Every structure is written in structure tokens, then in C-alpha cells.
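Hi! If you just cloned this repository, the fastest way to understand the data is to look at a raw example. We've pasted two of them here, unedited. The first protein comes first, obviously.
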Amino acid sequence: MTDTATATPAASVHEDGSLERLTIDTIRTLSMDAVQKANSGHPGTPMALAPVGYTLWSQFLRTDPGKPDWPNRDRFVLSVGHASMLLYSLLHLAGVEEIDRDGKKTGKPAISLQDIENFRQLGSKTPGHPEYRHTTGVETTTGPLGAGCGNSVGMAIAERWLAARYNQDGFPVFDHDVYVLCGDGDMMEGVSAEAASLAGHLKLSNLCWIYDSNHISIEGGTDLAFDEDVGARFEAYGWHVLHVDDANDTKAVAAAIQSFRDTDDRPTMIVVHSVIGWGSPKAGSEKAHGEPLGEDNIRATKKAYGWPEDKSFYVPEGVAAHFHDAIADRGVALREEWEAMFGRYKAAHPALAAEIAAMLANELPEGWDSEIPTFEADAKGIASRDAGGKVLNAIVKKVPYLVGGSADLAPSTKTDIKGAPSFEPGNYGAPNLHFGVREHGMGAVVNGMTLSHLRAYGSTFLVFLDYMRPPVRLAAIMELPSIFVFTHDSIGVGEDGPTHQPIEHLATMRAIPGLDMIRPGDANETAEAWRAAMTDGDRPTALVLSRQALPTLDRSKYASASGVAKGAYVLASADDPEVILIATGSEVSLAVEAYEKLVANGVKARVVSMPSWYRFELQDHAYKESVLPAAVTARVAIEMAGEIGWDRYVGFKGRTITMSTFGASAPIAKLQDKFGFTVDNVVKIARESMEAK
């Protein structure tokens, strides 16, 4: 049902001289001044939502400005990332203290007034859109609209999972809420719809989206392209929907948030109706949304607020103390109570407490990899997706906070935890998540779970990376150890045809800075790939796995798969090689067969397995030279994917056996013949490379 949160009209918020009014107008004026000085940014939404941000933070948000990484704090996500000055103003006035990557205080404020004056400048702590790790108090990197909404669902899922696993009678270790400020742009993006649908299904009553319905977008009024009843849509998703008719009505905003706090069977959306750039002569215009107001308009706006017209970055006396104390008086006590409770919890439940400590420190339990299987040599072999499933199930036994699932493809991606239940209302402690056919939403949710200290993974077919590249990219920007499992990794998919056969996808992932993409060549390389993904605590990993069976190489004859850790390694080699065959994934065994034929015919060859370009580039020059000697210019790269990038490793005289077209629908053997992925063709191209001048 839809409700309207009502209270006494709050026009007085702009007429009295209260600290509430002064604080709200300080948020507004800091925002407009920062955007004006930068000559870049969006002043309107921070101005319009200042009363909402003030009310949420001062009356409800459970956080401690002096310990901004308190594990049980409420999360605040600014999905409308273009309104970053709202968040920066809140962080500044709240007196949030800066911490470094290790959680240690630096002795500086998270956001100083000088930082606000340096809005959008090189090296500042106030970039154009909020960036996680860059600015203390920013819970996730936002900017691409809808991304923060998706992250918030992951955060809410994580809280429910953590509570189900760790809370004991008398010990509510995890019971925080997740708040989101979102706008019309978020509501238009598909990722928010995917995430909201999942949240409604899961009845995540710890999740509250506050939707700023201001009817303005960059091009003009939203009626140009968007006139649906968003509240009705969210009711259909199973959300509790409330309306606040005036964003300036702080009492109505508070009543709506309290209604969320009282709702325990579904997520809540509060539709707040605002006028963008409230109080500005340009209020409600595209200018108020997407560019500075201009000096004359700022002076007029400040006059309307009863503000000193000639003062910039002005914080009236008492405002910062009022806002900080409103938050800290509640948050410090809650945090201290929590820490005292956790001390008792450690005595009563030491094993669980140790598990929590390791998880929060982004560490793995001792012996976490002790049950990872070793696969015996087998000419028939096993698909790397199947090997990956076996390895995943072995790791989960030792790392219970490794949690995830697939976009409706677990039987195919092999990422289900065997014999374990599904994460559903009433069973939030289960490890198997079902994201539904929502790849973009899944990626955003996985990042949100990872931001909440879980080691989260999501899986789908590699070709559907197209639907979820944005969260993969954002995971890399945030340096999150999210794990993305992509199977059906090549034209080896066969009869499914070109719509399901990825071609350009490996190149697009290799182009993402900070993403470790690993394409293992057999079952033992797959085990090492999972080991690498789990130990990469400061970057995301994409595991790229095959549908078809891959021969399990005889490691007594060929080099150990532990070489995966360095990204590329010499799998087999004659002394002083004349030609180097470089391959990834399913093509490694093809390279080995060609190598054996070349050697049998007197050619001194080498096979290099290169599952991760990213890891190989981290190695020193000496190691790289030992794998790919510069003197050996005859090189062949073999990969069932696009050619882009391989010139880095094969050079001018080298050759590639790659894909320059889309695939076709046919049995895999026919496709291998058609596109040249055969032993005879590899041998032929290797000889041509040796003859190149």
C-alpha cells in the first residue's frame, strides 16, 4: 500500500532562526559555493535535499563520526553521485574523522572546509563523484546512476547474512540499516529495477531508498521520457511506499523514516517531492541541476535564505557543533555499547568472534585452502567450470563468509554450494544466492556485499559480461576483492552460436585497470586461479572458465600449475627455444599438442601458459625475460577470442591464431576446424613465424 507521511507543515524551517534552519541552509550554501568556485558540478540536488540529509543524519543515522568504520554502523549511500556536495557538506559538518586504509586515524577531518573549497580539483578529497577509499565516510563509489541502488541491496543482503550467522541470544552483533538517496535518473536505469525487484523478493526490511522526485533531468523535464508512477512500480515489487509532499517538511521526512524503522517485512521507498535548487531563482531548471548558478543567482539565493550575500563557504557559529552533537550523542553511545557487547561475545562465542575478526580484517582463516583438490592427469579431463565448482565447494568449507550465486545459471556455471540451502526470507544465513536473470544487478549487489566484508561472488556466461561490465569496472575502481565467475568462455560453446560465443570480451576485461582476469588452462590451473582470487584482497578477479572438457595435464611432465600466481609461466620448453607458443584457457592443451609435434620434428619449441596478463605485468623484467626471451621473436598466441592486445607479446614477427569474426552454430570440432584451432594449423603458423624476416 501507499502511505503519505504527514506532519505539521514545516514552512517555518525557512523562517525561524533555529539551528536546524541554519544547518540546512549551510549545507545548501556550501554546495552552491563549491560548485561555483569549481565552475563545475550540480548544485540543485544538494540544495533541494539538504533538509532530507539533515533529518536523516541528525535524527536517525546510527554512526560515530569518531569511528567511521564501526562495523555495525548504518550505511548511507548517495546513489545520486552527482550531488556529491551534499555528502561532503554532511561529512564536514558532522565532524567525521579521517582514517587510513588500515582504519587508523590520521588526525585530520574526513572533509575540511578547505577540501570543500577544493571541490573537483586535482588531488582533492572532494572529487566530482564520491569515491570509496578516497574519502572517509564514502561507503561506495557512485556516479553511474543506479549503481549505488544496486550496491545498497548487496549491503542489506550482507547485513541479513551476517546477522543470521553471527547473532546469538543477547548478542545482536549485526542489526544495522541501509539508507539510499536516489533520484529520477536512478529510477530510469535498469540496474535499480533489477536490484529493487530482488530486494522486494527477499523482503529486506533493513533497506530504505529515499527517492527525490524532482522531475528534472539534464535535457529538461522528466516528462520528455519518463512519466510512470514509480511508487506504484515499487508497490508491485513488494516495497512499503510512502510519500512526502515537500522535501522541506522535516517533520514529515522524519515521520516517513520512522515508518521505515517500524516496518519489518519489506523494504521501504520514501518518495520525496522536491524543487531542485530550492530557493534559487533558477530553481526547477536544468541550470540548477547541471551547472553552477552564477554569482548573481547565488547572491539572490542567499538573500532569500537571509544569508550574508557576500560570504562564501560560510559556516555560522554553532552549526557544526549542533550537527556533530546530534549525530555523536546517539552514535558514540551505540558504538560503545556495541563494543562492550562484542567483548562479552568474544568470551561467550570465541570461535564466531575470531571468524568475525578475520572477516573484518579481510583475512582468511588459517588452513583456508587445505581442502582445495589436486587433479590427477587425465587426457579426457574436465571442464574448468566443473573444476571450479569443486574448488569453490572446498573453499567454502573453510571460509564460510564466501557467499554468492549466479544469474539463474548455477547448474551451468557450477557455482552452487552442494547440499546447502538458498538465501531466502526466513533463511538469511544460507550461502546460495539466486540473483535471477539480472546480470547488471548481480554485479552491483556483489560489490555491495563485498563492501560489507563478505567475500562475494557472482556468476554468469562470459558473453553476458556485456550486461554487467559497469559493476566490474566499479569494483576495479574501488579495489574491491569481488569475484566474478564467467563460464562458457569461447566458441567452444558450440551449437549455441554467435549470440552466446564471446569474442571481444577478454579484451574488454583486460582493458579495465586493476582487474585480474584469469583464464586457466586445466583443472589444476583452475584451482590455482581460485587460490589467487581469494588472496587478492585489494582487487577484483574475473575467473574465465570453459564449458567443454579440458585435458588435465600431467604435472610430472609439465611445470606446476602454481605458475598461475605469476600470470604466465613456462609450461614446457626445449633448451634455447626457436619458437614460443603462448596460450590461455582451453587453448593451452592445443598448444601442448602442437609443441609435442614440433619437438618430435626437431623444432626447439616452448609453451607458455598465460592465464593472467595482469599478474604477468606485475612481475619484474628478469622474470618476464625468463618466460618470453626477447631474442626469440618467433611467437604464436593462441586464443579463441579477439586479437586485440596480443601484439604486446608476439611482436612484429609473431602471429596469432585468434578470432576476427563472430562464431557460428555448430559442434565444437567443426568450429575448431573452421577457425583454425587445430594442431596442424598451430604447427603451420609456428613455422611461418620462424621464417618471418
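Ok, and the second one:
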Amino acid sequence: MSNRLPPAWSKHLKTAPGTKTSQPRIAQPKANLPSQAQADDVLLRQAVELHRANRLPEAEALCQRVLARSPRHSLALYILGTFALDLDDEMAIRCFERAVKEAPQNAQYHFILGETYLKVGEHSDAIRHLELAGKLKADWIEALCALGRAYAKSGKVDLALSVYERALEINEDHPAVRMGLANALVSLGRMDEAARYMKEAIDRRQDIGAAYDGLASIRKFSSEPAEFQSILAEIENPALDRKGMERLHYAAAKVLNDLRRYEQAMAHLRKAKLLSPDRFDIDGYRRSVDFMIELFSADMMADRTGYGSASEVPVFVLGMPRSGTTLTEQICASHPDAHGAGELTKLRRIMNRLAPRTRSAEELRKSIREMTIDQSRSLADEYLHHIRQKAPDALRVVDKLPHNFELVGLIRLLFPRARIVHCRRNAIDNCISCYFLNFNEDNVYNADLRSLGLYYREYDRLMRHWDKVFPGRILRNRYEDLVSDQEGQSRRLIEHLGLPWDDACLRFFDKGGPVDTFSRWQVRQPIYSSSINRWKNYGGSIEPLIEALGDLAGN
């Protein structure tokens, strides 16, 4: 067993956290500074350099030395928070909150705190601090764009549009503004308007890769679009950065796949994947699955009867990405007594917080095994408060983070009466659909076909464990069945939620409101069957995937 938490619960330190402002600049110590302040500046500069060298424990120790002498040192708190970003976002938030308390007029502190709250899905807190950052530093484009994202994520897309439009008036040449506007419009289904801003971004040479990728993602092509040759020309541009090149290959693959030029599409995907610096540790992930299976055994759960909350409000829709989770959420959320909250990170953050000191598997095991009934109820209440902010009156609130399939044990510990829906799809189709997407660094298992297939096997192994520990308590919602029998499967789904049937659930694609998911184009369409048996189009190019899936390839 590794001495670190499983990959699902912690990540290796990144040398460049979240935002470009998160690496603080420490001024050279000035001769006329008091000796203690001068010494603190030296230590903080050394801490930043150690962090850049991936020597995190030493960097943290230097910040703690400063804080031991000056517990209210706002810059030390801010720097310590930046070190925690991506590794322990809860700790980062605590540090930034303390920095803001000590220096409430520092716009940068409010900005980084707002962005971190946005990252973890605390939208109201994100909006509050980003608004303050904008007030303290007028016409700050980065703060306005972050505020626009926060409004859009919280469902207030009209406010997001007004913020982006204001940013456009202030600086029409800033590369983030037009794509921010376009993404907000896409979430509302206003594709033609979004395309106009993407094309303007291309004309102005602003974030070329993202703009072309965006254009390709919002349409289904039946003939070669005018921009396709431009995408191919841009790929040959030696001045383009790695990320831009990667996104151009994804855009080309999407167009070619729509045009049924499958071998060419796969060739561009392979090039895109090779440009990614991240590779997946399948052996480490196997150990993490072993750990979860060993920890959340049937005997362990039986000994904890009475733990958690009796609430039936939470609904967890989970499974592999691209398995129908968004479609399932939309059907549920079309019911007048249900609310779709999107992909929430709150449950994962609760799990991370159970091993705050060493971030080790041993500490997590000890926390879970020694958890009291009162502690379990307190954690459940924290989660309920989080989702109640999004839908105070709904009888059911749907959390559709796909990778919550890793946390079913924690779900059952905190919410023994919660509904869980496991979305399942033909394994090869599911994996190919994942392969076509540019996942973030948390999900690099789709960086090559073999890793993707092996990861799928671990997902399947873990879900079989949950079905054994919680027999009959997890509804399997198969994508192919939903496509062939929409009404019958939708009725089965709503019945599982304990709600009366409502015909609105058959017209999920008419439901208003923003959609923030890879599937945001598709969910505005009626159910279609063209994605079934998609894998047959790719011939020998997907052999590494089929070999890795083994006996699951036929499921």
C-alpha cells in the first residue's frame, strides 16, 4: 500500500497551481527594512523557489517558520495557500481566508480566494470575493472574467454575459473575454451567437486552439466546414504553444469523425494525446481500488448501521464519463420536484479532509474506522447544507459527478437512504467517447487507449464490489436501454427516486437553464441512437483498447 492517498483523493504537487497569479512575487529585501521583516522576506522567497523545485515539505516549513513568529503575516498565509492549491484545496481556502482577514483591502487575496471557491463549487462565496476584487481594483479583466465564470457556474448566466460584455468594453483585445462570452452562450444553447465570438477570437488571434475547438464542439458536421482547412493550417504553425496545438488536433478529430473519416480522426487524436505531458499510473490506481474495497467491506458497513443522515434529498448519478450521466440527470431534473446540481466536488472534498495531516491511506483508514455517529451526521449535514443552497425546496437534488463511483462507500456511510444511479454503457463505445475528449489533468487515464481500457476494468471491479456490499441499492441505468425504451426506462428512473411520474421527464431537452458539461450540445437534442455500436467504425485502430478491456469488451 502506498503511503499516499489513492489518486482519487490527492494529486502530486504541480509546479504551477491553478492561476497564473498564484505564484507570488517576493520583492528583494530592502536595506531599510526592520531585521525581522527582512528575514521573513528572505524565507518566503526561499519557500517560493523550493516550491518551484517541487520540494513542497521544505517550502511549507519555511512559511510555517514565518507564521510561528508572526501568525497574522498575510503574505505568508497567501503563499502557503498557493502551495496547497490542487493538493488540498480546503487548506488553501483556510489560508486565503486568513490572509483576506488580515489584509481585507488586498484585491489579489480576494481574487485567489474567489477562484479557489469557484474551483471547488462554492459559487456564492466565489462571487462575493470576486466582486470585492473587482471593486478594489477597478477594470481588472482577470477578475471580471473569473466573476463571469462564477455567475455562469451558479446558473446566473445573464449576469455572466453582462460581466463579459463590460470586460469587452474595457479591453476588447484580452484573449479570455470572447471565449468566456462564447462559453456562457453555449451553456444557454445560443450556439450561433457563441460561434460569432469564437470567430472573432480567431480573427484577432486570441486563444486560437480553444476557439477552433469550441467551434468544432457545438455543431454536428455533414460536410466539411470552411474552417477545417484553417485548422489544418494552424496545426503547421510552429509558433503555436503545446496546449493550443493539442486543442487544434481535438478540433480536427471532431470534424473528421463527424464526416466519417475515422482513421484520420484517430490519427489526430493520437497526436493530441502525445502532446499531453501527463501519463496515468494504472498500478497506483489499482492499489487505490484495492484500498477502497478493503476499507468499505460488507462487515464494516454493517457495523455502522444508524450512521449518517436519514435524508432522502441527495441523488448521486455516477459511472464512467460519457456513460449517460448528463442525460440521466436531465431526465431527473425535468421533474418539478427535482433539481440538477451538476458535477459537485463537495463529497470528494469531505473525503480529502478526513486525512488532512499526512494525506496517507493509513490516516484515511483510521479516520473512517474511528468515525463516530455524531461525526458522520455532522459531515452529512455539511453536504446537505451545500446542496440546499442550490435548491432550498427540491425533494431531490442530483449530484452527477461521474467519478463519485469511487466514493459509494462514503455516500452510504453518510446517506444510507440516498438514491444512487449507476450509468452504464457498452464498454468499447464508452471508452471511445472518453478518448475523443480533452479531460483535465485529474483524468489522464484517457491519454492512450490501453490505459483507458485498464482503467475501465478497475471501474468495473469497484462497481461490482459496491453491488455486492449494497445489493439492490444501486439502480443500474443502461444507456442502450434508455435509448431503445425512453419512457419505460425514464419511469423506472423516477420511481427509483421515489417521486410520482411527470410527463415533463420525457421532454428533458426542452428544459431551460444552462448546461455545463461535455454533453451540453447533445442534451438539447431528443434521445438519438447514433452513438450505439459506434466502436465498429474504428477497425484495427482501437485494438489496444479491446485487448485491455479483455472480457469486458463485449459488455
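That's it. A detail worth noticing about the second one: The first helix runs from residue 35 to 52.
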